[in-house]
């Protein structure tokens, strides 16, 4: 069977070793002769999975016991609500860098005053706003590290005197960062971390308990911290997939992963910049290494290119409807060989 080069924005490509482990566990989990999706989440076999997944997050991020790690459900979209419900008492600061940041702002406005300190909506989110000041009177500052749809990424994070919250759904574990600069990180699993169905939340201790409103039990972070992500039945398959992906990330090392991701991005951006038949759609200084957006220079090239990538077994390259063109999502598990196949196709149009 011919290899498919998977550039899907998510659910996204996973390492083969993770897929193999998942297949095995679905058939016979830890010698129980039961499938992973049949066993009790309270059983010692799955509790060990959850414990290892949480430990690996701290290890990879180089965090100590000042942080709690949760695997929840509801996706990053649920976190737009939970962050503001749990943390926003008076006012919060946000940057608006795309669809998901905009949705986070919408949810936050239900709980307090929201100041949008910087927005790139005026240019259809093709850059990252930078010239803003974060006052010390905010409950927190919220940003989105990578914008999947529009292909922009924060390469530097601002210094601030208030808790910094970051949605890292589409570039978590793709590069080395000082993760201690963040007070709360959340990320849907289905890009770099595992199969869809669970959401990682990392919370610095001492951040919670400062709002006066009633918090519904299921939307209170403390509920899940006390329940060790087991207050209700977790998505056992997704967490298992995350654990094995985190093992793979730990073995590779973030430095090596970042080096490879940079090489992949440089390879494709170089072709976009030197090939007159293709045009990049984001500001050069804010280009994402995870989601590379571009378009064809003419309609004729567009029609021919669509056929060529299909013939090359390239999948998931179509751009989001709000941007159009093409989007190459190049998460950790995508090999540079797949990027070379895409570049080779593009070079035939020279």
Task: Give an account of the 3D structure.
- With 350 residues, the chain is of the alpha/beta class.
- It folds into two domains: 16-252, Type I PLP-dependent aspartate aminotransferase-like (Major domain) (Aspartate Aminotransferase, domain 2), CATH 3.40.640; 254-347, Alpha-Beta Complex (Aspartate Aminotransferase, domain 1), CATH 3.90.1150.10.
- It has nine helices and 14 strands.
- It has a seven-stranded mixed beta sheet with strand order 2-10-9-8-5-3-4, sandwiched between helices.
- Helix 1 runs antiparallel to helix 6 (236-252), helix 3 runs parallel beside helix 4 and helix 7 runs parallel beside helix 9.
- The protein is globular and about 60 Å long.
- The model has no long low-confidence stretch (mean pLDDT 97).
Largest sheet: 7 strands, mixed
CATH superfamily of the largest domain: Type I PLP-dependent aspartate aminotransferase-like (Major domain)
Question: Any idea of the CATH class of the largest domain?
Answer: Alpha Beta
**First-to-last CA distance:** 30 Å
**Order of strands, widest sheet:** 2-10-9-8-5-3-4
- What is the typical, i.e. mean, pLDDT? 97
The dominant shape is: globular
| Named CATH topology of the largest domain | Aspartate Aminotransferase, domain 2
Tally of domains: 2
- Which architecture of the largest domain would the CATH scheme give at its second level? 3-Layer(aba) Sandwich
Specify the structural class: alpha/beta
Order of helices and strands: EHHEHEHEEEEEEEHHHEEHEEH
Instruction: Name the helicity range.
Output: 25-40%
From the alpha carbons, calculate the radius of gyration and give it in angstroms.
21 Å
Count, helices: 9
User: Uncertain segments of ≥5 residues (pLDDT<50)?
Assistant: none
């Amino acid at each position: 069977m011919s290899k498919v080069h998977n550039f899907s924005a998510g659910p996204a490509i996973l390492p083969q070793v993770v897929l193999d482990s998942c297949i095995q566990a679905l058939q016979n989990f830890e010698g129980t002769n039961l499938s992973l999706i049949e066993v009790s989440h309270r059983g010692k076999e799955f509790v060990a999975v959850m414990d290892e997944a949480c430990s690996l997050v701290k290890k990879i991020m180089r965090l100590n016991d000042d942080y709690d790690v949760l695997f929840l459900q509801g996706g990053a979209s649920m976190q737009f609500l939970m962050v503001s419900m749990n943390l926003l008492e008076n006012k919060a600061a946000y940057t608006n860098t795309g669809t998901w940041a905009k949705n986070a702002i919408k949810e936050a406005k239900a709980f307090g005053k929201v100041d949008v300190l910087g927005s790139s909506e005026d240019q259809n989110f093709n850059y990252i706003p930078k010239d803003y000041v974060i006052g010390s009177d905010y409950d927190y500052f919220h940003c989105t590290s990578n914008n999947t749809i529009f292909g922009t990424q924060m390469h530097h994070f601002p210094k601030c005197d208030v808790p910094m919250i970051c949605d890292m759904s589409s570039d978590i574990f793709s590069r080395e960062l000082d993760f201690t600069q963040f007070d709360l990180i959340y990320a849907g699993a289905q890009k770099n971390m595992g199969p869809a169905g669970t959401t990682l939340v990392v919370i610095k201790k001492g951040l919670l308990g400062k709002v006066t409103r009633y918090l519904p039990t299921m939307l209170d972070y403390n509920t899940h911290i006390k329940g060790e992500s087991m207050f209700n039945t977790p998505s056992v398959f997704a967490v298992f997939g995350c654990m094995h992906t985190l093992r793979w990330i730990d073995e590779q090392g973030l430095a090596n992963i970042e080096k490879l991701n940079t090489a992949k991005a440089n390879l494709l951006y170089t072709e976009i910049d030197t090939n007159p038949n293709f045009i990049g759609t984001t500001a050069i200084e804010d280009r994402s290494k995870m989601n590379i957006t571009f378009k064809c220079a003419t309609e004729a090239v567009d029609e021919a290119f669509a056929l060529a990538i299909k013939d090359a077994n390239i999948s998931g390259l179509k751009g989001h409807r709000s941007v159009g063109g093409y989007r190459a999502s190049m998460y950790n598990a995508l090999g540079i060989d797949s990027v070379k196949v895409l570049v080779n196709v593009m070079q035939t149009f020279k």
